[in-house]
Automatic annotation (TrEMBL):
This is DNA mismatch repair protein MutS. Keywords: ATP-binding, DNA damage, DNA repair, DNA-binding, Nucleotide-binding. The gene is mutS. GO terms for cellular component: cytosol. Belongs to the DNA mismatch repair MutS family. GO terms for molecular function: ATP binding; ATP-dependent DNA damage sensor activity; damaged DNA binding; mismatched DNA binding. HAMAP family: MutS. Residues 706-722 form the DNA mismatch repair proteins mutS family domain. ATP binds at G632, P633, N634, M635, A636, G637, K638, S639.
Length: 887
C-alpha cells in the first residue's frame, strides 16, 4: 500500500523538525503553537492538555495538541521543568498577505540553560549553562547566564586522563542548570565519574569539534571583536577557551540572535578564593537547609537582606567565593562600618534601591530582542533613580560605595540619563506587553505616526456618530452599528423594521430576529480606519524597535551599572544584618590566629526558642591550641560550636561583620568539614563510605593554612575501628608538615583526650553540663579540659525514650562499666617508652587500648616514620595493629 503524501504544511513541519530532533517543536499557526506526532503525545501528557488528531477521518491520523501563543510561556516553563527543550517556530510572513504556505522558522530554542523569560527564572539565582573541557594537560569550565550576560571561566592543570575533583567540585558549586560535554564523555569509561557527579542534571552532549581550541578561539574573537583574548587575561587558558567556545556555539545554535550583553569573559583562579567544597557547603548549610532543602535556616537566609534581585544573586556569589586577599576583605569591611555609622543615609539608599528593577536581566532580555514596552518602562524608571542614588553614595569614603573606582562613572550616568529621557519621550506609560497591536508610542513623538493616529481616531468617531445620524435619518429605533471580525462594521436592524431600511443598505446576513447591512460609505470609512490602524501598528512597532536598538547599543553601560548597584546592595544588606544582630567588625591578623570572643552561631541563635543563646570564646593558634579536641554530652552544643567557628571565618573572609563580641581572625585557604550530616545513598555510597571519602579528601588536601572541622569521625563503624581512625586522623593533622592544621575535633571517643598528653598542640575542651539527681542541665559553655561522660542515657530520656528501655540501658551500662573496671585491675603494669616524650601514666593508658600483644605492637609503632607515612598506609597499619591487639 503506497504511503499517503503529506500536505505541504506537514512537509514543512517535518523538514523543520528534522533539525530539532531533541526539542519539542512549537509550530506557530495563527494564535496557537501546535505540536504534532511524538512531540504532541509527550507534551500533552506533561502539560495535561487534550491530545487530538489532524485528519481525524484518515486511516493514519496525526496526533496533535496546541497551546495559545499568548499563554505559551507557562506551558514552556512546565516542559523545561520536566527536562524538555522547546524549539519555538514562528510565522515569518503576514499570513493574510501571503498566498499559499507561510514561511516559518525556528527563532530560538529554549533549554534549561538558555532561559530568558522572567516566569521561568528564579529572580534570586543565576541560571548557568556550563561547559567542561579537557585538553592534554589542563581541564577547564566556562559558564554563562544568558539572562544577565555573566560569563566566567577557570581551569586547572591535570595530566591524568580523569577530570580533577577540584574542577568537578567547582562545577557543582556553580550549580548549572544545564551542562555541555563533548560527545566522547557520553560512553567513555574514563569519564564515568563525571557522569556520576552530574547525575540528575541536564547534560547535553555536543560534537567534539565544538570544543576544538582553534574554532573555539575563533568564535570568542569574533564575538568580542578583538584580535586576541589578552585583554580578558584568557589568551593562554586553553581549556577555558575550549569550554567557552563550546558555550558560544551552543548559544548561536539555539538563540539565533545577537547577544550584545555578553561583552566579556571573566577568567578566575581558584587559588584566589577561600575554597569550601560542595559537601562542606551543604554540611554547613550555607545555601540550603539539609532537612528541608530550602533557604530557611541557612547562612544565606540570615545574611541576604538585599533589596534588588541583582544584589540577591551577588551575595550568593560572595558567600560561595570568600576572599583571601586581605585588602579586598578590608575594603568590604570598611564599607559596612561606614554604612552602619550612617543609619539615615543607609535607609535612604535602601529606599532608592527598592525602586531599581533587575537591570542585569532587563539588559539581557532587551539585548536579545525580547524586551517589550513594559521592560523599557521598568528600565526607564530604574535609570531615573540613578542620579539621586549616586548622589547619596558620593557621601561615603569607601570606593566601593562612592563609585570612584567605577570606571567612567560620569559618562555612564549622563548616557543612561539620556536613554531614560528617550524612553520617557517615546514609550507610553500605559503600553502593554503586546508589540504588534499599537498603543506603544506617545503622541507627539513622531509626526508621521500622529497623522495615522488622527485618521484612525477620526474614523472611529465618525462610526460612533453614524449610529445616531442613521437612526435619525431612517427613524428606525432598533438600528445599531456593530463590529465583528467577519464583516467589520455593519448596521443591524430588527426583523420587524427591516422592511423600512433605505435602498442603499446592502444586506449581508439574516439572523432569526435581525437583518445585517453595510453601506458603501461605511465601508470606505472602515477601510481608512483599518488601513490607518494597520499602518499605525506597523509604524509603532518600527519606532519601538529603533528605541530598543538604541538601548542595546548601551547594554554594556547598563550591565556595568547593574554590577555596581548589586555590590552596593550586598554591602548595605550586610550592614543591616550587622546592626540588627550586633555583629562586630573582625580584625584580620597575619599571626595565624583565630581568636573569637563571645562568638555565636549566626543561624542557631535565630532559631532556638525558649533558651538564650550562650556565646562561647575560642582561640586557635599554631602554638598550643591548634587542635581543639571537644568532648561533652550529646546535645551539649559541640557541633554548634564547631560550625559557628567555620561560619565566622567564612563571613569574615567574604567581608562581613561577624556574630561575636570581638574577633581577630587570620585568612585561611580552605575550610574542610566532616560533620556527618549528609548521606549519599542515592549515588550508591554507604554512610561510612561517605564519611571516609570526606576524611580522605581532608587528609589529601588540607594545608597548614586550612581550617578543619571534624565532628565525630569514625562513628559510622565499630567502636574500635572508628576510634582508631579518629585517633590516627587527629595525629596526622597535628603532624602535617611538622606544622599542623587548625582543627576542631568533636568526639564521643573519650580515649582521644589522652592525645593532649602526647601532642604539643592538642588541647582538650568540653561543653559543660550540670548534673542533678538523674538529670542534666546543658550549660552550653565551652570550657577547658576533657570529659569522659556522654550522658547518652539522660539525653535519650529527655528525648522521650520510655522508662522501661532507659532502665534496661542503665543496667547494661553499669554491667559494662563494672566489667571494664575488673579487667583493668587484672592488667599487669606495663613498661613503655614514647619517642621524645617522658613516659607517664597516661601513656600506659594509651597502650591499654591494644591488649596483650604489647611488645610486637610496640615494635611496629617504633618503626613508623610519621613524616613520611601516607594516610592509606596509616589506616592499613592501624588495621594490622588492631588485629594484633585483638589476638
Ligand atoms: N551556645 C548555645 N546556646 C544555646 N543553645 C545551644 C547552644 N549550642 C547548642 N545549642 C542548642 O543545642 C542543640 C544541640 O546542639 P549540638 O547539635 O551542637 O549538640 P552536640 O553536642 O553536637 O550533640 P551530639 O553529640 O548529640 O551530636 C542545638 O540544636 C541548639 O538548639
Amino acid at each position: 500500500m503506497s504511503k499517503k503524501k503529506n500536505t505541504p504544511m506537514m512537509e514543512q513541519y517535518l523538514s523543520i523538525k528534522k533539525s530539532h530532533q531533541d526539542a519539542i517543536l512549537f509550530y506557530r499557526m495563527g494564535d496557537f503553537y501546535e505540536m504534532f506526532l511524538e512531540d504532541a503525545q509527550k507534551a500533552a501528557s506533561i502539560l495535561e492538555i487534550s491530545l487530538t488528531s489532524r485528519n481525524k477521518n484518515d486511516t493514519d491520523p496525526i496526533p496533535m495538541c496546541g497551546v495559545p501563543f499568548r499563554a505559551a510561556d507557562n506551558y514552556i516553563a512546565k516542559l523545561i521543568e520536566n527536562g524538555c527543550k522547546v524549539a519555538v517556530c514562528e510565522q515569518m510572513e503576514d499570513a493574510s498577505a501571503t498566498k499559499g504556505l507561510v514561511k516559518r522558522e525556528v527563532v530560538r530554542v529554549i533549554t534549561p540553560g538558555m532561559i530568558l523569560t522572567e516566569e521561568l527564572l528564579d529572580k534570586k539565582s543565576n541560571n548557568f549553562l556550563l561547559a567542561l573541557s579537557k585538553t592534554r594537560d589542563v581541564c577547564g569550565i566556562a559558564y554563562l547566564d544568558i539572562s544577565t550576560g555573566t560569563f566566567k571561566t577557570t581551569q586547572v592543570e591535570s595530566r591524568q586522563s580523569k577530570i580533577p575533583e577540584q574542577l568537578i567540585d567547582e562545577a557543582l558549586k556553580v550549580d548549572p542548570k544545564e551542562i555541555l560535554l563533548p560527545s566522547n564523555f557520553k560512553t567513555d569509561p574514563v569519564y564515568k565519574h563525571i557522569r556520576q557527579a552530574f547525575y540528575g542534571r541536564q547534560i547535553t552532549y555536543l560534537d567534539k569539534t565544538d570544543f576544538s581550541l582553534e574554532e573555539a578561539k575563533e568564535r570568542l574573537l569574533d564575538k568580542f571583536k578583538t584580535r586576541s583574548l589578552e585583554g580578558f587575561g584568557a589568551e593562554n587558558l586553553h581549556a577555558s577557551i575550549c569550554a567557552a567556545g563550546a558555550i558560544l556555539s551552543y548559544v548561536q545554535n539555539t538563540q539565533m540572535q545577537d547577544t550584545k550583553h555578553i561583552f566579556q569573559i571573566i577568567p578566575y583562579d581558584l587559588k584566589n578564593f577561600l575554597v569550601i567544597d560542595d559537601r562542606s557547603c551543604k554540611n554547613l548549610e550555607i545555601l540550603t537547609n539539609i532537612q528541608t532543602l530550602n533557604k530557611k535556616g541557612t547562612l544565606i537566609h540570615v545574611l541576604d537582606r538585599t533589596v534588588t534581585a541583582m544584589g540577591s544573586r551577588l551575595i550568593k556569589n560572595w558567600v560561595r567565593y570568600p576572599l583571601i586577599d586581605k585588602n579586598k576583605i578590608q575594603q568590604r569591611l570598611d564599607c559596612i562600618e561606614e554604612l552602619t555609622r550612617a543609619a539615615h543615609i543607609h535607609q535612604l539608599i535602601i529606599n532608592h534601591l527598592k525602586s531599581v528593577y533587575d537591570l542585569e536581566r532587563l539588559g539581557g532580555k532587551i539585548s536579545m530582542g525580547q524586551g517589550n514596552a513594559r521592560d523599557l518602562i521598568a528600565l526607564k524608571n530604574s535609570l531615573k533613580k540613578l542620579p539621586i542614588l549616586f548622589k547619596e553614595l558620593s557621601l561615603f569614603q569607601s570606593p566601593l560605595l562612592n563609585g570612584k573606582n567605577f570606571e567612567e562613572r560620569e559618562t555612564i550616568l549622563s548616557e543612561l540619563n539620556a536613554l531614560a529621557a528617550l524612553i520617557e519621550k517615546a514609550i507610553r506609560d500605559d503600553a502593554t506587553h503586546v508589540l504588534n497591536e499599537g498603543g506603544l508610542i506617545n503622541d507627539g513623538y513622531s509626526p508621521e505616526l500622529d497623522e495615522l493616529l488622527l485618521i484612525s481616531r477620526d474614523g472611529k468617531s465618525w462610526i460612533a456618530k453614524a449610529e445616531a445620524t442613521e437612526k435619525e435619518k431612517t427613524k428606525l429605533s432598533s438600528l445599531k452599528i456593530k463590529y465583528n471580525r467577519v464583516f467589520g462594521y455593519f448596521i443591524e436592524v430588527s426583523k420587524a423594521q427591516a422592511v423600512s431600511v433605505p435602498d442603499h443598505y446592502i444586506r449581508k446576513q439574516t439572523l432569526v430576529n435581525a437583518e445585517r447591512y453595510i453601506t458603501d460609505e461605511m465601508k470606505q470609512v472602515e477601510s481608512t480606519i483599518l488601513n490607518a490602524q494597520d499602518k499605525r501598528n506597523a509604524m509603532e512597532y518600527k519606532i519601538f524597535c529603533t528605541i530598543r536598538d538604541k538601548i542595546v547599543s548601551k547594554a554594556t553601560l547598563i550591565l556595568k551599572t547593574a554590577d555596581f548597584i548589586a555590590t552596593v546592595d550586598v554591602l548595605q544588606g550586610l550592614a543591616l544584618v550587622a546592626s540588627e544582630n550586633s555583629y562586630t567588625k573582625p580584625f584580620i591578623n597575619e599571626k595565624n590566629l583565630i581568636c573569637i570572643e563571645d562568638g555565636r552561631h549566626p543561624v542557631v541563635e535565630k532559631l532556638i526558642k525558649g533558651e538564650r543563646y550562650v556565646p562561647n570564646s575560642i582561640e586557635i593558634d599554631d602554638i598550643e591550641n591548634q587542635t581543639l579536641l571537644i568532648t561533652g554530652p550529646n546535645m551539649a552544643g559541640k557541633s554548634t560550636v564547631l560550625r559557628q567557628v567555620a561560619l565566622t571565618i567564612l563571613m569574615a573572609q567574604m567581608g562581613s561583620f561577624v556574630p561575636a563580641q570581638k574577633a581577630s581572625v587570620c585568612i585561611v585557604d580552605r575550610i574542610f568539614t566532616r560533620v556527618g550530616a549528609l548521606d549519599n545513598l542515592s549515588s550508591g555510597q554507604s554512610t561510612f563510605m561517605v564519611e571516609m571519602e570526606e576524611t580522605a579528601n581532608i587528609i589529601n588536601n588540607a594545608t597548614n593554612n586550612s581550617l578543619v572541622i571534624l565532628d565525630e569521625i569514625g562513628r559510622g563503624t565499630s567502636t574500635y575501628d572508628g576510634m582508631s581512625i579518629a585517633w590516627a586522623v587527629a595525629e596526622y593533622l597535628h603532624d602535617l608538615n611538622n606544622k599542623g592544621v587548625k582543627t576542631l575535633f568533636a568526639t564521643h571517643y573519650h580515649e582521644l583526650i589522652k592525645l593532649e598528653q602526647i601532642k604539643p598542640r592538642i588541647k582538650n575542651f568540653n561543653i559543660a553540663v550540670k548534673e542533678f539527681n538523674d538529670n542534666i542541665v546543658f550549660l552550653r559553655r565551652l570550657v577547658q579540659g576533657g570529659t569522659n561522660k556522654s550522658y547518652g542515657i539522660q539525653v535519650a530520656k529527655l528525648a522521650g525514650v520510655p522508662d522501661i528501655v532507659i532502665n534496661n540501658a542503665k543496667q547494661i551500662l553499669s554491667g559494662i562499666e563494672k566489667k571494664n573496671e575488673t579487667d583493668a585491675l587484672k592488667q599487669p603494669p606495663k613498661e613503655t617508652k614514647t619517642k621524645g616524650k617522658k613516659k607517664n601514666k597516661k601513656d600506659d593508658d594509651q597502650l591499654d587500648l591494644f591488649g596483650n600483644n604489647e611488645q610486637s605492637i610496640k615494635k611496629m609503632l617504633e618503626k613508623i616514620d610519621i613524616s613520611s607515612i601516607t594516610p592509606l598506609e596509616a589506616i592499613n597499619l592501624l588495621n594490622d595493629l588492631k588485629q594484633k591487639a585483638s589476638n
